[in-house]
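Sample pair:
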Amino acid sequence: MPALSETGSGTEYLPLTAIERELILFFVRIAQAFGIAKSTAEIFGLIFASPEPIAFETIVRRLNLSKSSASTGLRFLQRMNAIVTVPQPMERKTFYQPEMSMRRLITGLLGETALPHLQESTTHLDNLETLFKTQDPVDPRLENRLAHLRNWNRKASRLLPLILRLAGGKP
């Protein structure tokens, strides 16, 4: 079903179809597991559900999003390689379609979600260590747990970039 309908008063955006709603919900549920904003997942779901490349304005209107929210979501999706821009003849607007390579999707997802959190975790561990030094006495079991966290963080910091390289992404 087309997203637009021409009326005497101009262009009217049609409501989401049942298939579009279900695809959007599917991606919202996945996104929640990775801490990705619901609106970003909705945008990806709509783009994925659209057989034709879809324009920014159509995304804004069909999902009832602010332009700012849509722009932020689209930028995030582009950074994680989940969508691509598609030039349309005789159009100045930007059109989007989903990336269909699972490898690019996974490497983009890990690169935009897990890797930044992993990099920030070193700072948090440093802060914890500083706090431990100011506390007297510190339970040796907690010191042992902090050592385990540092070890886990070090291993994950080595493993994730390797996974990204093996999958064809940039660490």
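The domain at 4-98 is CATH 1.10.10.10 (Arc Repressor Mutant, subunit A).
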